[in-house]
Amino acid sequence: MKETTKSKMSRFINKVKPLFFPTLYFALVVTLSFSLFSVFKKRNFISIYIDGESMRPTLNADSSTSVDGKTNAVIEKNIQFGYANSSKQAINSLKHFDIVITYYNDCYTIDASGKEVLKQDADYKIKRVIALPGETFKIVNSVISYKIDGEWVSPNLPFSRNISSITKKDHPEHTLNENEYWVLGDNCANSRDSQDVGVIKKMYIAGVLSAIEGTCTLEKQIISGKTVSKLYDYKYYKTPIYFL
Fold this sequence. Notes:
Largest sheet: 10 strands, antiparallel
Radius of gyration: 25 Å
CATH topology of the largest domain: Umud Fragment, subunit A
Number of strands: 16
Helix content: 10-25%
CATH architecture of the largest domain: Ribbon
Number of helices: 3
Order of helices and strands: HEEEHEEEEEEEEEHEEEE
Shape: elongated
CATH class of the largest domain: Mainly Beta
Strand content: 35-45%
Distance between the termini: 68 Å
């Protein structure tokens, strides 16, 4: 006897019924996990863009610059983007050679109550932590050394470029106070960092670099004396590079 459409439907439902609730449960778990991760990332991480040469070749090694002849806009092509951990725990756990997102003292102004307040047009910097609070260090003949138990020690540097060979100048023996850091760019010769602005207060540090996710294009124009930046191209995601 020929099977009716109704019986076919009934057989199909009976076949897929055992899979319905497990599939629904899996979809709910994935959706909830993604939502929780999104909330966690939004609360604990900040998006960053690598605009400049101060951290080459570690960061932004493939970027290029051109100028729009009509608008005089500076176009940074293929700059890297990623995210940084802005949680207190991450900042409190800083160690040698971590890459941080930070501001400098000239990015702040003093309000009526005498409190340092970040300027609205302040631009963050991306640098590498060289010395930590309470440490005594020096840079002599382009070699970074730390005073440990009365002895000077020059560590091996855990990144590709020999940062110690291209510092701009010697820095005499110096002991950092509590909540003070010393930072440098990997491309020291083209970096405005602690060699120029001195120590970085802990309160100036906005986050610790976690990952580079891909590249995008950035356009910068100077309007009424101010630099205005905007992304005008899609983000191209690549295999993430993690900094843990």
